[in-house]
Amino acid sequence: MKDHDTNIPALMATIGANAKAAAAEMAFASPDAKAKALSVAADAIWAGRESILSSNALDMEFGRSKGLSAAMMDRLELDDARIQSIVDGLRSIAAQEDPVGAVIDGWEMPSGLHIDRVRTPLGVIGVIYESRPNVTADAGALCLKAGNCVILRGGSESFHSATAIHACLLEGLHAAGLPEAAIQLVPTRDRAAVGEMLAMTGVIDVIVPRGGKGLVGRVQADARVPVFAHLEGICHIYIDKDADTEKARKVVMNAKTRRTGICGAAECLLIHKDIANGLGQQIVDDLIAAGVEVRAEGVTGSVPADASDWGKEYLDMIIAARVVEDQDAAHDHIRNFGSSHTEAILTENAKAAARFFNELDSAILMHNASTQFADGGEFGMGAEIGIATGKMHARGPVGAMQLTSYKYCVRGDGTVRS
Questions:
Q1: What pLDDT does residue 205 have?
Q2: DSSP secondary structure code for residue 308 in this structure
Q3: Could you write out the DSSP letters of every residue in 202-232?
Q4: pTM for the whole thing?
Q5: CATH architecture type of domain 8-228+398-410
């Protein structure tokens, strides 16, 4: 596959028609065929890892020429360990129970009807993403598992890596006798392809944007098809006055520094005033010693915070920190500046943790755990297509089950309505 300089509307129309035709076949593809396609694809990715890494090297060179940030370069880079993670994700999804056809609920009516609510594929899913080449495998696999077809439009930075990974997914489809149009990668860097996807009503049933605020904002503003929004990961950690010292120090360090460029990285610390001069300052000092720039209010950080530091996704070795009066003030800050992605409370007080879970409404809430666990793989989904921060249909990590809808299957015996 190469980067096309062609008629983009015609290209996308062909891709859309092929996806629509394949969707009818994928809706009743057998669980065994889907599992085989994913297993063969996993084997192909591992066997072809040298070629994938060579392709990724071209993307890394392209990223450097574009001046991508260190965090974005980290998202883009592949190595043996990350390829192994992709392979493990595919195998995990292959081994999962097939969601299609599962009876969610069933009941009898006085009329004599038996009604089942049954999981069914969404149809054709469009995924628009930036930088991270693993999304090619994750999104392709999850859509396939749920009986959907998918049109993948990766970022220009990951063009070569995505193409190499996609070729392995096609090997799996071919081996399983499934239509290759079930997983299509848009073969161009031309941004006009995104505009075409957003207008493909009648073909694409839902769009999933996965990237920065600019990408997601454009998709939400311009899409004429439904959107599963994966917005910013402005993740907060509230350090309660009853936090355990060692747990809190360990969790905060991991949440900020393990990987700064992922959406689950902590971006703001909220510190109860009663521990500001003790544990709170100690944690800030830990972060500074690890090379993190702490933009602080109420504790001594690297630099003073200003109004622009609240509600900001840094995706870098930078974090905001603020001393708050109490838990109510922490909740208010999160409601005002959060992105409804992931928040954590560090405390040994069960009532405080229960209040945190009950009173906040982000997609993921955590107690005494790193926000870096905000990931479909860590939730047992094998992988994720994104973290949905809206409230319609899917929320939080979007795995195969979340990529289904349902239908009602109604059985009677010559039953008529009086």
A1: 95
A2: G
A3: TT-SEEEEES-HHHHHHHHHH-SS-B--B--
A4: 0.83
A5: 3-Layer(aba) Sandwich (3.40)
The DSSP-derived string for 54-85 is HHHHHHHHHHHHTT--HHHHHHH---HHHHHH
What DSSP string describes 149-214? EEEEE--GGGHHHHHHHHHHHHHHHHHHT--GGGEEE-----THHHHHHHT-TTT-SEEEEES-HH
Helix (H) or strand (E) holding 410: strand 404-411
**Position of tokens 């709170």?**
280
CATH for 235-373 is: 3.40.309.10
* pLDDT value for 168: 98
pLDDT in tens, 195-225: 999 999 999 999 998 877 788 888 888 999 9
Say if CB 104 and CB 407 are below 8 A apart.
no
Q: Which amino acid is at 65?
A: S
Name beta bridge partners: 391: none
Q: Which helix (H) or strand (E) holds 288?
A: helix 281-289
Which tokens in the block code for residue 415? 């039953």
Pick from 210, 162, 213, 214: nearest CA to 183: 162
pLDDT tens across 13-53, in order?
999 999 999 999 999 999 999 999 999 999 999 999 999 99
Give 170's DSSP letter. Answer: H
Confirm if 350 and 61 have CB atoms less than 8 A apart: no
Are 157 and 181 within 8 A, CB to CB?
Answer: no
Tokens at residue 322, please?
Answer: 């603020």
CA-based nearest residue to 352, from 246, 291, 275, 256: 275
Cα 17 from Cα 28, distance rounded (Å): 19
What's the CA gap between 256 and 341, in Å, rounded?
A: 15
Write out the two tokens for 352. 């405080």
pLDDT of residue 232: 81
**In the chain, where the domains are located:** 8-228+398-410, 235-373
Amino acid letter for position 33: A
Residue 52: left if φ>0, alpha if ψ -120 to 50, beta else—which one? alpha
At 257, the amino acid letter reads: T
Strands 149-153, 124-129: pairing is parallel
The two tokens of residue 134 are 């693993």
Intervals of the chain under pLDDT 70: 1-5, 231
Total length of the chain: 418
Q: What is the pLDDT of residue 386?
A: 81
